[in-house]
Amino acid sequence: MIVNIAIVVASGFLGWAYIRFKPPPPKICGSPGGPPITSPRVQLDDGRHLSYKEWGISKDVAKHKVIVIHGFDSSKDLKLPISQELIEELQIYMVSFDRAGYGESDPHPKRTVKSEAYDVQELADKLQIGPKFYVIGLSMGAYVVWSCLKNIPQRLSGASLVVPFVNYWWPCLPAKLAKESFERLLVQDRWVFRVARYAPWLFNWWMEQKLFPALSIMAGKMDIFSQSDLEFLKNLPPNSDGTQERIRQQGVYESLYRDIMAGYGKWEFDPFDISNPWPNNDGAAHIWQGYDDKIIPYKVNRFLSEKLPYLRYHEVQGKGHLLPFDDSLCEEIFRTLVAG
After folding, report:
1. 3-class secondary structure, 334
2. Cβ(126)–Cβ(42) under 8 Å?
3. I need a surface site. Which of 1, 52, 85, 331 has the fewest CB within 10 A?
4. DSSP 3-state helix, strand, coil percentages of the chain (rounded to 5)?
5. Is the CB of residue 113 less than 8 Å from the CB of residue 146?
């Protein structure tokens, strides 16, 4: 009798846990009841679609082709302050795209750091932008650049990792540096990243529960920003075109949560496993880091730049995580990128 009761109780608990831990189904763009498709998209070989936005001069005459990779809780519609005059001077064609699950790009149930690089390559091929292109990744989008450097180096003319994401479990990081940098984060963020890495099956519940604080940036905590970041945000006009709402429209799990789990999960490589993509010195990767960045610790990116010869490090005093939205710095990032 006691055994039977235990089985019933255990079965009930497992059923409850399954319901609580299981992520909700995505609202696929273009599906019945799903968000509408309003942007051009390419269909990938696995059947998924990537939504994209082209800007700059025509790719048919451009000297430089640049793929812009957005960060966390962002999209292809990010507005970088690069002037039309500079675009024409440098002869740049640019394409930004919604990464898997964001905006109007289909979710990828098996999304990994590696799959993100091949999405970039396939987007370039479907749009016929040529055998070589530049990539620029912002914040969380920089892990995609690391993956491109590892998995498709033959396609890259150059790369920029701007205020780039850091995985604190990269084997190449000295234990003391990784620990020191990780402990600079808010306690609630440390727990989010631990759960994403060690218990991804629990991640949806962790992010949705109310017992413990979840990710600080999603909770609107402003103490994660530097003084220069706060000044920028204070002068930012309110979102009036609906782009912010469209970022998560297919589901917060498919966009934001999968992004965190991919970035902080177990990689197939770490930065020290990457061979120099430009052994003939015909290209380079640039890291742009704000010294006052409270989201990304400068010491990790400085360390990587000292160890990897193809990385060129640009540390900017007095700037934080929103460094790429400074007009003059944004233009300097693009000038440096295409200059090699």
Report:
1. helix
2. yes
3. 1
4. 40, 15, 45
5. yes
